[in-house]
Every structure is written in structure tokens, then in C-alpha cells.
Amino acid sequence: MRYTMSMAMNSLSLRILLAYVAGALLSIGLLVAFGALVKDRLPGMALPERTQALAARLQFDAQGNPTGFTDSNDHPLWIYDSLRQETAWRVLNGKGHAVLLSPGAATWPDSDAIRELPDRRFAFTRESVLYDGARETRLHDGHTWFVELTVSSRIVDFLHLSFALPFIRLGVITFSLVLLVIFAACACLSLKYALRPLRKVSQAATQISPRSLSHRLATDHVPAELIPLITSFNQALGRLETSFRSQQDFLATAAHELKTPLTLLRAEVELMEGQPEVRAPLLMQVSHLARQVQQLLLLAEASEPLSYRFSDVDAGEVARDAVGYLRRIADDASVRLDIHSVEDMAKWHADRGAFFTLLKNLIENAIQHAPVGTVVSIDVRAESLSVRDQGAGVDPEQMPHLFERFWRGAHRRDTGAGLGLAICQEICTAHGWSLTASNGLTGLTMTVYRNRA
């Protein structure tokens, strides 16, 4: 099979891969944002930025000389008085002389002891404590001023151990939970989106039955990995349809071809003179074969969906026609037929001929199992119809075989082919109805339920 670009874009593997890549990129972005947030919040790690902010708040008098800094909540000046041993600032003029300084800056070492570092950074050691510093330039009225800010390494370490690490630990745990939820959501959404075509195909496959073998599963919007499987399934359906149609055609053709020889054979037997002991059994066997052929034709017709012509049918009228048709058989068996129907019931949407065959077979089957002198009740309602005899019923272990082809139960008077209830089942399936059998206090009740559209 040719692998096209559209199939590649519709690949299940590609969808899952893209989902995980998106989740990974989102996770990296969140971690980077979290790292930047932590970096901005940790003391001592933004020393150049704090120096720049301090230099921007440097104030001058009318002669252009620096007088101090404006105080602010995010950078208060009291900290340099309280922690004079840990942090300090000073202002230098263009010649490098200090003109303003905090209490802690008075003990800074000489210029020779200060190590100059890249990016306007510097460092020095005082009383075995390392101090990191940053320098920022401030221009005012044509004069250059330098603002220097230092922080001791020990106060930075203390703040990190006391505040930064617990904060980072809490942040890592929080963001891990957030990432877990995000990955779970991404996985659920990606799987739901990726497997939606597969669920649709599965639902379509469940709708395929022997009556809808011509249907095929669509491959539109299906993941590329599943297209060969669906194609093979459709090809298997095609072979099954061909085989099923061939079987149905053979059944109908064979039954049709047998009707004429049986008719001729019956005529020949009826014309036989003498030997009545031979003539009667032959006529009985010919009648039995003719009945089986007729049942096979009905079964082939009931199994073919195209043979049905649906219209609104009066179920009570059809039931009365079936009772009238079987009246002589019931009289011969000394069984009374009793029909109950509602005159103003809703119409049933059905093929009238198939509906008549359904009722005829159900009533005839009940007659064959009804004891002499009993009643077969036919109850026709708007949503169901039932046929009940007063015979011995059906053993529970035999109930699953009731609608199998050529299966015959006990207590029958005739030698039927065992196709009557199978034909009923085919007719109900074609109409979307359900046919059930249940044992009552006496006899068996066959019920047809009409499913609303």
C-alpha cells in the first residue's frame, strides 16, 4: 500500500509523539519560568540589578553634589544601618574618591585589595569573609558618579539555607504536581483524540450483520496504522458476502427446481390404480418433501432484505387472516384458536406477506404442540403480539436451540422440517423486532416485541 503524506499526518504514532513533545516543551517552559522567578527572588543573585536600581535613586543638591538615596519598600535604606557588617554602599566621584557611604563601607579595604572582575563586578575579603560587589555609573550635569554595593557571602549563604532552599523545595514539589497533572491531561486528550476514529470504526463493525454484509468500514480520518487492518476486514466481508449470497441463491434455486418434479411425482402417485397400501405412504412422503421445499423457499426469501416491501399494516387484520387460514388444521387437531386484538391499535410498519408468514408459523407451531381439546391464544397489542399454547412447554436446556434451523422439538404431531421458527426469527430481524420464547404455567408463549423507531 502506498504511504502518502496524508496518511503520515494521520498516523497514530505521530499524534502520540506530537502530544508528548508538546508536553515536554510545556514542561521545559514552565521549569525555565520557575528558574527565572527563583533567580530574581534569591538574595545576592541580582546584585548588578540592585546596584543599578540604587544608582537610579541617587539624589543631588542644587550644586549637583550627591546627597543620598530615596527610600523605597523594595529596597529600604535601613538595612544598611542594621546589617552594616554584611552589606554596604558608597558613592565615588569621577576621581574615585568616596563622597557618600553607608556605615559598613567605612571599613572597606584599600583599592589595592579590591579585585576587579568582569561586568563591573568586584570582590574583596575582610576578616576572612568574602564580599561580592557591583558598580554602576550615574551621569548628572556632565559629571560622572559611581555607585558601589556589596553583600557578604555569609549573609547570602544564610538566606539561601534558611529561606531559598525551602522555597525551592516547595516550588519543585508544587511544579512537579502541576506537571504531573498537565502530562496526564495531555495524555488523556491525545488518546481520546487519537482513538476516536477507532471507536467509530468499532461501533460501525458492531452494526454489521448477515443482513448488512454489503456495508464496509470507512477509512476516512482513521490512523494510518489501522488502514491495512480495516482494508483486510472489508475484504473479508466481501468474501463473506459473496459466499452468503451464493448459499442463498443455491438454496432458493434448489428449492425452486425441486417444486416441479415433486408436483409431477405427486400427480403420478395420485394416478396410480390399485395398491392403496403403497399409494398412501408415497403421497405422505411427497407431501412432506413438498412442505420442506416450501419452507426452504420461505427461508431464502426471509433472509433476503431486498424481498421486503414495508407499509403500515393492521396487525389485528393480519392475525385474523392467519387464524382463518389455519382454522381447518386446528379443527383437525381438535384445538380451538382464540384471538384477542384491539380494534383501534396503532399500525405496524411491516411487510404484510412476511408478517402473515410470521403469524402463520407461530400459530401453526402452537397447534402442533397443543394437547387435544385445548386453546391456542393469540393476543395482539399495539407494541407486541403473543401466541400461547397449553402444551408441555420446552425444557430450559432446549430453549437456546428453539430458533435453530432444522431443530425439531418433541410433542409435535407432524413431521415438519424444523424451519418454521427459524423463518420467524429471520422475519423479526429484518423488521427490527425481537422474538422471545418463555414457559408459562402451562405451555409455551412466543412473543414478538415491536421496537419503536
Radius of gyration: 48 Å
Number of helices: 11
H and E string: HHHEEHEEEEEEHHHEHHEEHEEHEE
Mean pLDDT: 78
CATH class of the largest domain: Alpha Beta
What CATH calls the topology of the largest domain is Heat Shock Protein 90
What is the correct CATH architecture of the largest domain? 2-Layer Sandwich
- Which geometry do the CA atoms define? rod-shaped
Identify the strand order in the major beta sheet.
Answer: 4-3-8-7-6-5
Give the fraction of residues assigned to helices: 40-55%
Low-confidence stretches: none
Structural class: alpha+beta
Tally of domains: 4
Sheet with the most strands, sense and barrel status = 6 strands, antiparallel
Q: Give the strand content.
A: 15-25%
- CATH homologous group name of the largest domain: Histidine kinase-like ATPase, C-terminal domain
Distance between the termini: 41 Å
Q: What's the β-strand tally?
A: 15
What does the model show?
The protein is α+β, with helices and mostly antiparallel strands and 453 residues long. The protein has four domains: 80 residues, no CATH class; 106 residues, Beta-Lactamase; 77 residues, Signal transduction histidine kinase, dimerisation/phosphotransfer (DHp) domain (Helix Hairpins, Orthogonal Bundle); 140 residues, Histidine kinase-like ATPase, C-terminal domain (Heat Shock Protein 90, 2-Layer Sandwich), CATH 3.30.565.10. Helix 6 runs antiparallel to helix 7, helix 7 runs parallel beside helix 11 and helix 8 crosses helix 10. The relative contact order is 0.07.
